[in-house]
Sequence to fold (308 residues):
Amino acid sequence: MKLPNPRRMYERARWLRSDGRPSFRTSIREREPEIRSLLISELPVVSPQTPLLKCVEEMRRMKFRAAVMVKAGELSGILAFQDIADYLGGGGKYKIVTERYGGSVYKALSIPVQELASRNVTYVEITDTLERVLELMVVSGYGVIPVLGPEGRLVGAVTEGSIVRFYSARVGRRPASEFMTKNVITAGEGSSLRDVLRLMVSAGVRRIPLTTADGRLRGVVTWRGVLEFVGSHEIFRVSESGDISDALNTEALKLADRDVLVVDPSTPLERLLSEMFERDLDYALVAEGEVLQGILTERDVMFAVVGS
Fold:
């Protein structure tokens, strides 16, 4: 059984009222844009039989952390990065790799997407409100919500990033420290890819900073880094024996972002967001001196923008 993620439980408690409805600012609800204003129409769309490798290649190319599964023109599932991390060594789905495919990296990446994707898809219709989208994001934990048109056909998705960009003018000059996630989950600089994937799955996060023994930052392993490792076929080059364990023993630092955006806790959110947009990043680290204080992701910024 998948355990509830502590961060998601905290978000539900903070952003949902006792009746299960969002507690976002009235001014946002009164002037909600149509969903199409937030819509991303270009996203990875796969069939149930699409091999996992092909799916990851598309997610990497489009810089999207989920792929939508469509069968006969209808939405039938969604494959999130967390599902991939779970399967490739981070969680219980890794048993499929070892027991069915004998650890073969080539066979493991040929698995049809339908065997890993979630069929219980959270979605909205094009006529729904932003309030409904936010409610589903908080309750489900997903940062990508598929959008269906009048005939039930997929027309795109609303993401945390698309909401942040639409409302970016609202962020103001309040400091990053007010919105960052504290108690950042980190791993040692000598950690393996296997170690990092396990942390990502168990903690329900998509970014793991790597630090030295005295706390200095060496880099950050992100969902993009993992997709790059697989989608660029580097995973095959390091698996000389053909066994996925070779890949999982790779030093995580080799996949990590080195040019990381690190800001002071007092940095105004508007300036931080401008730098994130300029560098095409979906996160930033907050540090005082060389001491890591927190991490600020698109999800944190979204709550800063539309939250009370």
Remarks:
- The two ends are 34 Å apart (CA to CA).
- The mean pLDDT is 89.
- The chain has two domains: 6-170, 176-306.
